[in-house]
Fold this sequence. Notes:
It contains four helices and two strands. It is mostly helical. The chain has one domain (2-144): Herpes Virus-1 (2-Layer Sandwich), CATH 3.30.40. The longest helix is centred in the N-terminal third of the chain and has 28 residues, at 24-51. One zinc ion binds next to loops.
Amino acid sequence: MKKLCSVCDNKFEVSSPATKYCSGECRNEALRDRQTSINTRWTSLQRILTAEKCDEHDPLWRFSTYAALIKSGTCVFCGSKIGGGIALDRFDNTKGHTAANCPPESNPVCAWCNRIRGANLTVAQMFRLKPLLTEFQKENKCKKK
Ligand SMILES: [Zn+2]
Ligand SMILES: [Zn+2]
């Protein structure tokens, strides 16, 4: 079975369907990219927590808490890659970002779903919309190609 390397776009023969990279170098590059993007998001989140005057004891101030929240890399509502930004959904949009207000059940989220939900829909309603949101994301991606 041949596959495209998701880093260098080279075609390569895969031994297992889970393989995404043609070489150890490409895999390391992907890991580095992911690390960079986590660090960038983390910097933005710290800025937001400072602006919102988040309590200094809140677990969200810990990098490990945040890294665990966004680890999956895919939006809980539509299943797409989370893209840029801090990718956190606040359960109560009238309150700031805290560990309690950004629970793992509804995180991470993509910017598109975050905009749709805004102050309009509850988390439970977003989950009811999940099949449609997933379908719409696929439709829109196909249109772009
Ligand atoms: Zn490669
Ligand atoms: Zn989404």
